[in-house]
Amino acid sequence: MESYENLAGIVNALYQRKKAIIGITFLTMVLAAGLSLLLPNYYAAETIFYAASPDLAKPSPIGVNEKKMDYYGESEDMDRLFSLALSSELRGKLIQQFNLYDHFKINKDSKNAEFRIGKKIDQAFTLEKTKYDAFRLSIEDKNPILSRDMTNFARDFINTKAQSLIKDTQKKLLLTFEQNISQKKKDIGVLNIELDSLRNKYEIYDTKSQGQVIAEQLSKSQSKLQNLASRLDSYQSMGIYRDSTRILGIQKKALNSQISLLKRQAKNYNAGLASVVSLENQQNEASDQLGIDIERYKLLKSTFETSFDAVHVVEFANKPLRKSRPKRSILVLAAGLAAFLITSLAAIAAVYSKKVNWKEVLRSDK
Fold first, then answer.
1. Domain count, the chain
2. For residues 52 and 311, is the Cβ–Cβ distance under 8 A?
3. How far apart are CA 210 and CA 127, in angstroms?
4. pLDDT above 60: residue 64
5. How buried is 249 (Cβ within 10 angstroms: 0-12 exposed, 13-18 middle, 19+ buried)?
6. What string of H, E and C letters represents the secondary structure of 121-179?
7. Are 153 and 97 contacting, i.e. CB atoms less than 8 angstroms apart?
8. 186 plus 295 within the same structural domain
9. Are 248 and 297 in a shared domain?
10. Does 198 fall in a domain?
């Protein structure tokens, strides 16, 4: 019964002072409505975009090794865009492009000018990821056109800066390719000089067929010499055909010289074959690798000179038609609710304070 009496007392206290409570609440709401009309309207423009995959900036593989290309970025690509969006460089570009010191009426020469304008931009700037993994970038300002222009500018800056990061990487890679190609050309030049020197030294000009040709010629010459020697011996033993004998002797001498030359060539060929073949293999491998590097360089250079987008824009920022704040109705209702609660508590406190004998309370404390 005691709790019921307490509740009845609270209701009775509120009822007795209902006019004061309602009046104060109403006046507070009217005052809040009047003050809210003095607050300026703010407009928020927003743009929605996705992170693009860096694969779009890579040379497209052709042939059997062709792979499926990703068009949308992964989590690391999103993190890169977040970092660019929150960078001080973007803040500085916005300040410079839209003359924000004058817009916010901040003296740029004052001590805390940079801090104050940074705070203003941070309050106006919003970047969040939607449930569909898209970026929603929004900038709020009193001027709806300025809000739209700053939002589109910020998105374009993020796109351009992300492109620049990839382009810088490609540029460094191109420089590396150029240095490697230049060095390989020098190495091939040295190999060519060494190879020419060995070929001249060992008289080797065709490692694939020259040995076989020398062997065939040597075999034929030796066989021919054997036949010729038999005929010459026969003519000499019979003492006939002196002219033929003289001619055969000359031919035998020529064949002996030819056989000696072929044997010397065969000896040189065998002595230098391994070295020449080794240098030829090195030359062929270096030339093949140089050709591959040149093709890669051409493909990368073509990609470097081609523009690409680092973001996929879903929605461009348009001039906002409705204000984003202040929410005047919410402000008025919140002020009225606060006034009602405070006056109600005051009314209850006033009623119960009369029932308390404060003199006894103070004496008991002593």
1. 2
2. yes
3. 75
4. no
5. middle
6. HHHHEEEEECCCCCEEEEEEECCHHHHHHHHHHHHHHHHHHHHHHHHHHHHHHHHHHHH
7. yes
8. yes
9. yes
10. yes
Question: Do residues 17 and 105 lie in contact, with contact meaning Cβ atoms separated by under 8 Å?
Answer: no
Q: Are residues 204 and 240 in the same domain?
A: yes
> Is residue 217 domain-shared with residue 270, that is, in the same domain?
yes
Q: Using alpha carbons only, what angle is made at residue 105 by residues 101 and 106, rounded to the nearest 5 degrees?
A: 60
Distance separating alpha carbons of residues 220 and 226, to the nearest angstrom: 10
What is the b/e burial string over 91-100, where b = at least 16 CB atoms within 10 angstroms of the residue's CB? bebbbeebeb
Residue 183 belongs to domain spanning: 173-304
On whether residue 130 sits in a domain, the answer given is no
177 and 299 assigned to the same domain: yes
Choose the weakest-confidence range: 30-39, 64-73, 172-181, 238-247.
64-73
Residue 245 lies in a domain: yes
Q: What is the pTM of this model?
A: 0.63
In this predicted structure, what is the pLDDT of residue 152?
93
Question: What is the three-state SS of 292-314?
Answer: HHHHHHHHHHHHHCCCCCCEEEE
Long-range contacts for 248-252 (Cβ within 8 Å, ≥24 apart)?
A: 252/225, 252/228
Region 18-39: what's the mean pLDDT?
Answer: 79
The tens digit of pLDDT for each residue in 102-153 reads 888 888 888 888 888 889 888 889 888 888 888 999 999 888 999 999 999 9
Picking from 146, 151, 135, the residue whose alpha carbon sits closest to that of residue 317 is 151
133 falls within a domain? no
